[in-house]
Design the sequence.
């Protein structure tokens, strides 16, 4: 508990959420002022999020910060309503206020049910935080989650960003999202719950009930199989704690990635013009926005390849495209290996075509004409 509280203090203080006034330095209980900053804990009822709630309440109460909880009910399991109610009750008993249960509908659009649930959860957390004018939302990702995320990203994709894992600080739609427990292990959050007498819920899809010597079936989520099967195997194979090793790798890689991202933002501002306010649209609206962009190929070519790739990736994302690394590489060839080649086909019926020094990324006119013709016939 002491280590987790220390991590919590450091993270909150680093973002201007320290002691609100001198009165909170005195001994005794002090109630936060009504206009004090509000911090929300995202709580699922699991061991990590309940430990986060307990630590956040201790720190916030000592510093005069209001601390509440948001419980998102995905309705993906029969007992989800009961789990949400128990989590809310525990948070209230810890002293968190307000405690909100938010119901969401998970819409799977080909990305997998786990990814769809995550999108719905984040949308609910950010939307609720905005409505309550919260100063921050706290997520309960631990050191174990960080290590597992790196392995999952390496399985699914490639690139430097995979080694950087999850950032401790993110901004979603102007809402500050913090992960104060990235230096705390799952074993430590379990111990916090046990010491504090907090009854936590284990998601059955995590595979905690399956004996460690038995591999999880492929029907379990990838994250669960990485946690249950792959991580213990890697630690035994390497003869070291791979969770700690990967988490330390993430801290080092995160510094490099953030430096690259800063350079990429500079390059983006100098070389890309968007049609419409593409970069400020919500994620759920990008796919329907049909936005485009113009890249100054000559200006972009002067930047290192690592920066060019990031600029192109950001441009495709801002246009709402579910791109892959091959799409980024193909557009980069229009920048760095231009010899009059034709357009590059992109997802969502978009294309990238260079004319003189400008690369235009937009919906392919052929597809657009077909769609218009189809509408006219109907």
Sequence:
């Amino acid at each position: 508990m002491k280590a987790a509280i220390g991590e919590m203090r450091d993270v909150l203080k680093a973002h201007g959420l320290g002691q609100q006034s001198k009165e909170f330095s005195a001994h005794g209980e002090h109630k936060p002022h009504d206009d004090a900053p509000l911090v929300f804990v995202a709580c699922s009822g699991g061991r990590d999020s309940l430990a986060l709630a307990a630590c956040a309440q201790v720190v916030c109460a000592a510093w005069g910060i209001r601390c509440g909880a948001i419980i998102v009910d995905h309705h993906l399991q029969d007992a989800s309503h009961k789990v949400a109610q128990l989590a809310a009750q525990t948070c209230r008993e810890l002293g968190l206020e307000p405690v909100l249960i938010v119901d969401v509908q998970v819409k799977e659009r080909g990305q997998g049910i786990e990814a769809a649930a995550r999108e719905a959860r984040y949308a609910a957390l950010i939307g609720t935080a905005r409505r309550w004018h919260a100063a921050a939302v706290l997520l309960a990702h631990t050191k174990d989650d960080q290590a597992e995320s790196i392995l999952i990203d390496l399985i699914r994709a490639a690139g430097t960003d995979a080694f950087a894992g999850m950032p401790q600080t993110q901004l979603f739609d102007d809402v500050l999202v913090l992960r104060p427990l990235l230096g705390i292990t799952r074993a430590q959050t379990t111990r916090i719950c046990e010491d504090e007498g907090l009854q936590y819920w284990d998601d059955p899809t995590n595979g905690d009930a399956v004996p460690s010597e038995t591999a999880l079936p492929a029907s379990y989520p990838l994250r669960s199989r990485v946690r249950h099967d792959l991580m213990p195997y890697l630690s035994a194979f390497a003869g070291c704690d791979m969770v700690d090793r990967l988490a330390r790798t993430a801290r080092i890689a995160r510094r490099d990635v953030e430096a690259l991202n800063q350079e990429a933002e500079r390059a983006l501002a100098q070389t890309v013009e968007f049609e419409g306010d593409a970069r400020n649209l919500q994620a759920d609206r990008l796919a329907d926005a049909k936005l485009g962009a113009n890249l100054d190929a000559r200006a972009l070519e002067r930047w290192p390849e690592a920066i060019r790739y990031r600029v192109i990736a950001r441009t495709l994302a801002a246009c709402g495209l579910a791109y892959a690394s091959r799409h980024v590489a193909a557009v980069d060839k229009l920048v760095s290996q231009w010899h009059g080649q034709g357009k590059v086909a992109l997802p969502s019926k978009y294309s990238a075509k260079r004319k003189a020094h400008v690369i235009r990324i937009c919906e392919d006119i052929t597809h657009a004409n077909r769609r218009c013709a189809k509408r006219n016939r109907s």
Q: What stands out?
A: The CA atoms of residues 290 and 363 lie 7 Å apart. The first helix runs from residue 2 to 14. The mean pLDDT is 91.
